[in-house]
Structure formats: structure tokens, C-alpha cells
Amino acid sequence: MKPKHDPKSDIATWIASATSLTATYFRSVDHERIDKVLSGELTRKHGGRFAPVGTNAIFFAVSDSGATTEVTARKDRLGGASQMPLDHYPRIIFAVSIHLDRVLDLRKLQSNPNLKQTCENCRTPDTGHSQQFAVPLIQAGIQGLFFPSVHAGGDLNLVVYLDNLDNGNTIQIVNEESFRENAKRLILPKP
In which element (H, E) is residue 26 found? Predict the structure, then answer.
């Protein structure tokens, strides 16, 4: 009788293959959270895909349109209509420059026959599978995980685990200084 394959060894090998990343990604926030773009506060409180409740993490999309799609889809998943309520406008999409040392890409596991079902479970509307899957990644010090969007077609998302960042890692809003200067001028005059 052939012994059952232990997927933990495949995952351990995958974790050991983590690579560095330097690129720009996108994040959409409503006007009330403009000062908390990179806080991870909401994920810590509510969790998310590949981020159990209590995880200090931020989600990014590879495109600005993907960032908008993810926000409206998340709202729909949490029980509301996919359209944002008017009090969540204006929304602002930030470009964020990211440099990380230990990043994984879930797409590399999808071709592994031993983990194919695990990867499919992580893409269901129930985020519990993906949250459970992420625990050993977070414990191993992984800083970011790419995963295919469940909502935005072929787009790719990135979750960054803030507690695993060290001094060499950066997450910085692109043009942050000029945005802060110009934001004061964006306040609408009273009619």
C-alpha cells in the first residue's frame, strides 16, 4: 500500500522558495480612512482572504481597476449590495511602492496535484480555508502572498503581513508628500 502524501512537505518547499519583490500596487480606501491607508486596522479586526482575524495585514491589487472591484466584491461578500453606499464616497485609489524580501505566489502551488484541492478551497467565498492555510506562512515569516482574485477576473492580489516586515522592507504611498499638499485644495467649497 502506497503511503499517503503529506502536503506539508510541499508547502515547506514552497515557503523556502520565497523571493523578493519591488513593485507598485494599488489600494482603494474611502475618505474616512484616508489617514489609515497602510494601517492594517480593518484586516486585524475583520480578517480577510489569507489573513485570519488578528492579522496585521494590508491588501493590494495589481491594477487600479482591480482595487475597486475587490472593494465592492468584499462588501457584497459581507452582506451588502456590491455597490458602495454613498457615504463611502469619495474613494481614493493609492499607488503604493512595495519592497519585500519574502514573497510567495499561490499560482505556483496550483499546478501541484497534491495541493490542487487546497488551492481551490482557498478561492471559495468562505475565507476560512484561506485563513487557515495562511497561518503557517505567517508563522514562517512570509511577508507577502500573491493570489488570484476571486472577483476581478484575471487580476492578482497581494496581501502583505505587516508584523513580518523588518528594517529593509518598505511600503510607501507613491507621491505621498504631494498628495498631502494637494489634499487641502481638494476640499469642496460650500455652495
Answer: strand 19-30
Residues near 42 by beta carbon (within 8 Å), at least 6 away in sequence: 33
Q: What pTM value is reported for the model?
A: 0.83
Task: State the DSSP H helix or E strand holding residue 27, giving kind and residue range, or none if neither.
Answer: strand 19-30
**Would you kindly state where each structural domain of the chain is located, as residue ranges?**
7-176
| Helix/strand/coil for 17 | coil
pLDDT tens digits, residue range 59-90? 998 887 777 676 666 555 445 554 555 555 56
What is the β-pairing status of strands 144-148 and 156-161? Answer: antiparallel
21 Cβ neighbours under 8 A, 6+ residues apart: 98, 99, 100, 103, 144
| Low-confidence residues in the chain, pLDDT < 70 | 1-5, 31-34, 68, 70-90, 151-154, 182-191
The contacts of residue 122 (CB under 8 Å, 6+ apart) are 49, 50, 106, 129, 130, 133, 147
45-71 b/e (C-beta count within 10 Å ≥ 16 → b):
eebbbbbbeebbbbbbbbbeebbbbbb
Q: What is the pLDDT of residues 146-163, one digit of tens each?
A: 998 876 566 899 999 999
Look up cell 485570519; give the residue. 52
> Which residues have CB under 8 Å from 73's CB, separation 6+?
82, 150, 151, 152
Residue 65 sits at φ, ψ, to 5 deg, of: -70, -35
